[in-house]
Each structure stands twice: as C-alpha cells, then as structure tokens.
Amino acid sequence: MKNEFLRHTLSTIKYRFDKAIHQCKTGFGDFNLGYGSRCPQEIVHHMHDVLNWTRAVIERETFERSTFKALPFLEEVDRFRAELVLIDQALSIQELDVNFTKKLIQGPLSDVLTHIGQIAMLQRIHGTPIEGEDFSRSDIRTGFNE
Q1: Which range marks the domain in which residue 126 is found?
Q2: Number of domain units in the chain
Q3: Is residue 25 assigned to a domain?
Q4: Per-residue pLDDT of the chain (146 residues; tens, 9 = 90+)
Q5: What CA–CA distance (Å, rounded) separates 135 from 9?
Q6: Best label site of 29, 34, 88, 114, fewest CB within 10 Å?
C-alpha cells in the first residue's frame, strides 16, 4: 500500500474527529468561549482549509490560496470528511518521499489533530463529554475506499 503510514494517519484523524463530534448537541457548532476563540464551525472550516492545501501540495506540489465559503456546522463536517477521502485517494496513487511525509506529519496533519482536541474540549464544556478510550486499541482501518 502506497503511503500506508500517512493513510493510516488520515484514518486516525477521521476516527478521532467522528468521536469528538459524536452526539453533539444542537447549537454546538456556534458554541463560543469568547476571548477571540473559534467556535467548532470555524475550527472545522479551518481544518478543511488545511487539508485542502495539503491535497493541493500532494497532487501539484504547489498551492494557490483558495477561499472557501463558510458553511453551517454539519455541512462543514461533511466537507471536511470528503476532503479526507480525496487526500486518501491522492496518497493511494503517488508514493511520497519520506522527507515530504515528515513535513506533512509535523505540519498540517498535526495541526488538524490539535484542532480535533480543541473540539473534544469544547464538547466537554458544552455538556457532552467524550467517553474515554485507549486509542491505541481502537479498530482503525487504513484507507477509505478499500
């Protein structure tokens, strides 16, 4: 499998993201702590932008800034999930150099995982704490289309 480690990282991102937003209450997407913080809808919008940039760099090794219209929370969630699938497809086609792989892990993929942690924290504050889990034992399957 080409780029197996990166593709497994994407599957892990999806698993953790789905867990972080599972059973979110009405209004969660707009929940804001104030003090200049982002609400979940804005965080997911940003995460999509980060992944879109990542895919463009993987596919074309270049990127022209795209501006995406902000969507309601659940539509942002769907767009984010769709972008994960598109990146996985790109990674299934072209094997990446190990140094480029390292940069993707230390940059955009780590950024997205950090934001998923923010969403999980906001879920707890909003009244829907996420059930604990040993993620190293989670049944996470690499790839979205296999």
Answers
A1: 1-10+38-61+69-146
A2: 1
A3: no
A4: 899 999 999 999 999 999 999 999 999 999 999 888 999 999 999 999 999 999 999 998 776 677 789 999 999 999 999 999 999 999 999 899 999 999 999 999 999 999 999 999 999 999 999 888 888 888 888 888 65
A5: 12
A6: 34
Is 22 contained in some domain? no
Q: Is the Cα torsion angle 104, 107, 110, 114 positive or negative in sign?
A: negative
Q: Is 60 buried (19+), middle (13-18) or exposed (0-12) by CB count in 10 A?
A: exposed
20 lies in some domain:
no
Number of residues that make up the chain: 146
CA distance 72 to 69: 10
Cβ count within 10 A of residue 41: 21
Sign of CA dihedral 23, 87, 108, 80: negative
Q: Does residue 31 belong to any structural domain of this protein?
A: no
Decide: pTM greater than 0.85: yes
